[in-house]
Amino acid sequence: MDLQQAIRERHSVRKYTDRPIEPEKAAEIQKLIDECNAKSGLHIQLVQNEPLAFSTGIFKYGQFSGVKNYIALVVKKDGNHEEAVGYYGQRIVLLMQSLGLNSCWVGLTFKNIKSAYQMKPDEKLRMVIACGYGESNGAARKLKPISRFYKDARSGNAPLPEWFERGMEAALLAPTAMNRQKFFFTLLDGNKVAAKANFDLMGYAPLDLGIVKCNFEIAAGKENFEWA
Q1: Residues 174, 195: Cα–Cα separation, whole Å
Q2: For residue 123, which of 38, 44, 204, 54 has the smallest C-alpha distance?
Q3: Which of 179, 30, 11 is nearest to 103 (CA)?
Q4: Max alpha carbon distance in the chain (Å)?
Q5: pLDDT tens-digit series, residues 95-135
Q6: Angle separating helix axes 162-172 and 205-220, nearest 10 degrees
Q7: 160 burial type by CB count under 10 A (0-12 exposed, 13-18 middle, 19+ buried)
Q8: Contact 74, 123 (CB under 8 A)
Q9: Which residues contact 71 (CB under 8 A, 6 or more apart)?
Q10: Which 3 state secondary structure label does DSSP give 152?
Q11: How far are the Cα atoms of 15, 32, 183 from residue 167, in angstroms, in the given order?
Q12: CA 11, CA 138: separation in Å to the nearest integer?
């Protein structure tokens, strides 16, 4: 499964089986995590066989069950890291989907088990991504028209490039908090693309923008445009 197919087939999954992640797949995930950490300065970690985060006390809710594996998105306490968390976290999500695994971004409904991962004094856990073999592959949601999420600001009357349409379709398939999709793209002259996060009281919009930009970039093709 290539990454564009992974974008189309990936859906949020909250219920997981006991099937463990095979060592060779875990190694592939870890390799990408190492690459993402080196590029971003984040401290993302793969946590396996840890059932407490989703089954302890008041955290046994949110319709999650069977979660024993997750990606811990550890970041610096200060600094602007939200978009990077979304972008690199989504790269890992799509790799896992291509390996036949399921996933779900989780911002609140889990307990922070500090012994399960490494964290320096100047770091904090931003959120996690539940992962593993789901009881199902999740369900697709109804998509809104892409015209609501972009503006063509180019001079002239050239038709919308095919790569931009592909990118926007993939952007709408990206997971966002409560499916609020608080993002907007602008197509500029010179095949430049600007993307922004609209204001959102929940505070997840900048992180969601990173997820969305990751999907857009993969589907549009990095060779076809540059970020403005």
Answers
A1: 14
A2: 44
A3: 11
A4: 60
A5: 999 999 999 999 888 989 999 999 999 999 999 999 999 99
A6: 140
A7: middle
A8: yes
A9: 33, 44, 45, 46, 47, 89, 92, 103, 128, 129, 131
A10: strand
A11: 30, 23, 13
A12: 5
Residue 184 CA, distance from chain mean position: 17
Q: What is the 3-state secondary structure (H, E, C) of 107-148?
A: CCCCCCCHHHCCCCCCEEEEEEEEEECECCCCCCCCCCCHHH
Contact 68, 49 (CB under 8 A): yes
Backbone angles phi, psi at 194, to 5 degrees: -105, 140
* CA distances for 15 relative to 62, 106, 133, angstroms: 10, 13, 9
What pairing do the DSSP bridges indicate for beta strands 192-197 and 226-227? parallel
Q: Return the residue matching tokens 């550890």.
A: 74
Task: List the beta bridge partners of residue 150.
Answer: 185
Q: pLDDT tens across 191-210, in order?
A: 999 999 998 777 899 999 99
Which residue shows structure tokens 């004094």?
121
CB-CB contact of 121 with 64 (8 Å): no
**Per-residue pLDDT tens for 84-93?**
999 999 999 9
The token pair at 46 is 């793969």
Tokens of 7: 């974008």
- From CA 217, how far away is CA 54, in angstroms rounded? 32
What integer pLDDT is reported at residue 62 of this predicted model?
Answer: 64
> Which CA distances in Å does 144 have to 42, 46, 48, 192, 214?
32, 33, 36, 24, 19
